[in-house]
Design brief:
The chain is mainly beta and 318 residues long. It has two domains: 254 residues, Immunoglobulin-like; 61 residues, Dockerin domain (Type 1 dockerin domain). Helix content is 9%, strand content 26%. The strands form four sheets. Strands 1-2-5-4 form a four-stranded antiparallel beta sheet, with no helix packed on it. Strands 3, 6, 7 and 8 form a four-stranded antiparallel beta sheet that branches. Strands 11-10-13-14 form a four-stranded antiparallel beta sheet, with no helix packed on it. The two termini are 24 Å apart.
């Protein structure tokens, strides 16, 4: 049961966290490897202070002895994203990597009060392995999967006002894949565009996202929220997709039946746990997610539990 809850990110931690001392220093709240291709890896980071500098170092060994950063191209895409560093979110990217190769990373985050290295000295480095083949290579041989692009609005806590600079992640629960991540696009009404064709299977090939596949979407809200409440999670379904013509469409992910809060097609303990995690959250608070407010009252409470209990054990179609 605990493994099932972890699959959907409802218990335990799926990210690397670091809480620094003394308390007057900044905290790097979490980091995550994202947008992994055959030749590049990005590391996303979140701080509880505005970010003034980001440096990524690449190693060939877990001990962090052989620094190979100079062999590759490193940039910080979030520098060009309006308001991203101001609210404490950043992405650093390394390019020119070899396919199917494990790399190790350390990230230096600078704020007004301190520079923090993640992971700290003596801890194991963050690691990620490149894919065997990327989308562009598959397009050359006609084998690429043409998934859609999911648009998702970047909003303030409570989901009412668009906010620039929020970082949005998407993955498929239980797939073991790295997340894809995006900031809101310029001129897009504060929507992040998440290309599902950049998801890969365990063999390093494009992952085919079928109709109505459960999607987990997470959003870092940076200094807009307290550290323990910084990440918002919602679950959606992929829209109906046509393989012909093989052109990706921009879609909004589909909301699920209200009591099926994790969008897996059944009402069970996962839905109950997801709501329980947000108990007593109100619509203007960081802990609030519209998906946990089953009855749309603006408060996550016992009435929302009752909605789930009344349908417990039901499966699609509802």
């Amino acid at each position: 049961m605990n493994r099932t809850l972890q699959r959907y990110g409802l218990v335990g931690g799926l990210t690397l966290g670091l809480m620094c001392t003394p308390s007057t220093w900044a905290d790097v709240l979490q980091t995550r490897a994202v947008n992994v291709s055959s030749t590049s890896i990005s590391i996303a980071a979140s701080s509880d202070e505005p970010v003034t500098g980001v440096a990524l170092r690449v190693y060939s060994d877990a001990a962090g002895i052989n620094d190979i950063t100079s062999q590759f191209s490193v940039d910080v895409p979030s520098t060009n994203v309006f308001f991203a560093h101001d609210i404490g979110t950043a992405i650093a990217r390394v390019s020119g990597l070899l396919p199917v190769t494990e790399y190790y990373f350390a990230l230096d985050i600078t704020t007004a009060s301190s520079t923090i290295t993640v992971p700290p000295s003596g801890a194991g480095l963050q690691t990620s392995t490149t894919q065997s083949i990327d989308k562009a290579s598959q397009l050359n041989v006609g084998d690429a999967v043409s998934n859609d692009v999911v648009r998702f609005l970047a909003t303030s806590p409570g989901g009412f006002a668009p906010v620039d600079g929020l970082l949005t992640f998407l993955d498929i629960p239980g797939s073991g894949q790295n997340s894809i991540a995006a900031f809101p696009m310029s001129g897009s009404n504060d929507e992040a565009a998440l290309d599902l064709s950049n998801l890969f299977d365990a063999g390093g090939n494009s992952y085919e996202v079928f109709d109505n596949t459960p999607l987990r979407i997470r959003q870092w809200r940076g200094i807009l929220c307290a550290p323990s409440q910084q990440e918002m999670t919602v679950f959606r379904r992929s829209d109906t997709h046509s393989e012909l013509p093989r052109v990706a469409a921009a879609t909004q992910a589909t909301a699920c039946f209200s009591s099926d809060t994790v969008c897996d097609g059944r009402i069970d303990v996962l839905d109950f746990q997801f709501v329980l995690n947000a108990l007593n959250a109100q619509s203007d608070e960081c802990r609030y997610s519209p998906q946990t407010d089953v009855d749309s009252s603006g408060l996550v409470d016992s009435n929302d539990y009752a909605e789930i209990v009344n349908r417990l054990g039901d499966i699609e179609p509802f």
